[in-house]
Amino acid sequence: MKNKFLVSGATGFVGKNLKAYLNKKNIKVIGVSREENLIEGIVSYKNCDISLFSNSEAFIHLAGKAHDLRKVVSADEYYEANTYLTINLFDKFLNSDCKVFVYLSSVKAVADRVDGFLTEKDIPNPITAYGKSKLKAEEYILSKVISKEKRVYILRPCMIHGPNNKGNLNLLYQIIQKRIPYPLGKYINKRSFLSIENLCFIIEKLVEYVPNSGVYNVADNDVISTKELVKLIGKASNKRVLILNIPKNIIGKLVFIGEKFGLPFNTEKLEKLTQNYCVSNAKINMVLGEELPLNLYEGLNKTISSFKDKNHNG
């Protein structure tokens, strides 16, 4: 093994964590980024040529435009960042001596709503431009004939979290710290999450020894309701949590007002907090043949603790 990975999106949340994880395993990481003012050890996409690929064991493609709940990102921006960039970099991989390509797609490339558990057998039917742009990239990758010397993995993660992540977990944490009651106690749901540590472990192991290319959902083993998550955050941060059981019809009226006046509490935010979205990781667990480093609750507690430590240090 060349013991060197090329990683796009190296300055993002997943990229930074993956680099730190791999460095501990004595694997050198060369970062690839769009940034103009590049930090040391990072090269731009336009300078990411065939030789960089050929001198690396694996290319981990993390870069892309994330799903924007504020709806200010255009469809063209999603396709440019998630589809066309992936096509460009994948073509370079195919023409190089690099052996492994890992593409970080999304469960939203398959479905925005899920009944039961999402599996790799589900027929993709994304609704948003984000999901469609991710699926287009997947379709291009899968349309190519891969030589026997190469391996290609498409990973579909659910909601990724970890220390210092700024997503919905952080939002819930801030709400609880301000002692704002959680108003959605009437909603019972189950959701999958993915610890960043588990994701890094999966990427490392795929490159290390999994022989066959494939498409894999990636998630922690268990699922949790938002109400349970709120309680977990309260317990981990030593805050008393007040959960209100406001009737759903009243919540619906509040959402309507939020939509009309452009307030943060809108339909999409409500769905994020209350809908079911369970993701099966049976396929990836089977090919790995190893336990993930963290269970759901260990991973969530690590993330919540990082919020607590940051606030305390701040």
TrEMBL record:
Entry-linked PANTHER family: BIFUNCTIONAL POLYMYXIN RESISTANCE PROTEIN ARNA, BLL5923 PROTEIN
The name this protein goes by in its record: NAD-dependent epimerase/dehydratase family protein
Naturally occurring in which organism (per UniProt): Algibacter aquimarinus
Domain named NAD-dependent epimerase/dehydratase: residues: 6-219
